[in-house]
Amino acid sequence: MEGILLVDKPAGWTSFDVVNYVRRMVANAEGKKPKSIKVGHSGTLDPFATGLLILLIGKNYTRRAKEFSDLDKTYEVALRLGVTSSTGDPEGNLTPMSETRPSLKDIHECVAKLTGKISQTPPAYSAIKINGQRAYKLARAGKQVVIEPRNVVVHQLSIKQYAYPEVTLMTDVSSGTYIRSLVETMGQMLHTGAYTTTLRRTQIGEYSVDRAEAVETLDIQKLSNLLQGIAV
Predict the structure, then answer these.
(1) What is the per-residue pLDDT across 202-211, written as a single tens digit (0 to 9) for each?
(2) Are 124 and 95 members of one domain?
(3) Does a cis peptide bond (omega within 30 degrees of 0) precede residue 122?
């Protein structure tokens, strides 16, 4: 059993939770031990985030992980102004920063400046490896995390709704772009602080979350049917 599986990850699950869940399902169906089943994913979603996760099942597909991880991605994101988070999301320690209420014009000007090729520093609480260790593990241990800035491309960043202190955005970005960092930069530019409250990935390249299966409704028969007819 091998192929590409599109999953709609629920909030509260890590990307690895989803991988393990499907790995065990395939192992049970094939009468094998889970560790002998090759399952990977092509781009981590934070535990609080939801949306599209591409799972690669079988060695003919897991070896193609970079091919999928390099694709552009689309997100729906909601942020809160006036407050910062130690992790950039709802799971961190929240600190009130400012009661300044930016105008819609201010938000539009900020969005325009963040569209195109930009330099961004990934968050300390991320899965990036530093000297072989995940950055978030070092950060949680209270160790200093130094991550070099990187160039990314924000192809599109549009405002869907603004009702202070909440802003809802839609963005198309290059691989390697951290939405939490993008939101924090917006907060700095607006002199209010900001953190990401909800995040949903809706597209990876040509693959849409509309075609994805919810983890809660996935079973081995449905998994088998979804993988049929997909050629390497």
Answers:
(1) 999 999 999 9
(2) yes
(3) no
